[in-house]
TrEMBL record:
Residues 1-32 have a biased composition (Basic and acidic residues). It comes from the Bacteria. It comes from Hoeflea olei. Pfam families: TrcR (PF06242). The lineage of its organism: Bacteria, Pseudomonadati, Pseudomonadota, Alphaproteobacteria, Hyphomicrobiales. Residues 1-43 are annotated as: Disordered. This is Cytoplasmic protein.
């Protein structure tokens, strides 16, 4: 946690305050042991979240999905094989918006799965969602393109053709 430069600076100057260097390894928060409690109102959303994860992140293993959403591997297999009892009524929904997991947890699991899987074929690359971090970094370069000169005449060109023609119906009194 201390660099050699920091130690040598402290040895040379006893009044120097030591500063910790940035950790090189990302350590996730320690999680509670045991199953998580999911409120009854959110339990019906689990299969939709599983379907979303299976479609948008096929690189995730069953154990990772069950960790994220808090479900069993058999339920995941049933949804993958479309043998779930409610398979006809399932609609894929993002587990983050449903409140079943956090975006940070989802990004972490997707990152782990991508590392374990290795390089993806280019055909599958477009079908997988990009993590929030990559989206934010990608948008930083696009800001210059979005700040072009905006011509007011071009923006309001169609507006003039949409104006109503005033009729003299009110003057009949």
């Amino acid at each position: 946690q201390l660099t050699r430069e920091e130690i040598s600076a402290a040895e040379a100057n006893p009044d120097h305050k030591l500063k910790l260097s940035e950790p090189k390894v990302h350590v996730p928060e320690s999680k509670r042991k045991g199953p998580r409690y999911t409120p009854v109102s959110k339990r019906q959303d689990r299969p939709n979240a599983i379907l979303w994860l299976v479609r948008n992140h096929p690189e995730l293993k069953d154990a990772q999905i069950s960790r994220l959403v808090g479900t069993t591997k058999s339920t995941i297999e049933q949804i993958r094989g479309r043998t779930h009892w409610n398979a006809a009524n399932l609609t894929p929904m993002d587990p983050v918006t449903l409140g079943l997991c956090t975006q940070i947890d989802l990004d972490l699991e997707v990152e782990r799965a991508a590392k374990n899987r290795g390089a993806m074929p280019e055909a599958e690359l477009g079908s997988v969602l990009v993590s929030a971090r990559e989206t934010e970094l990608g948008n930083l370069g696009d800001e210059d393109a979005g700040e072009k000169e905006i011509d007011a005449d071009a923006v309001f060109a169609k507006l003039s053709s949409m104006k109503r023609v005033e009729t003299d119906e009110d003057d009949d009194d």
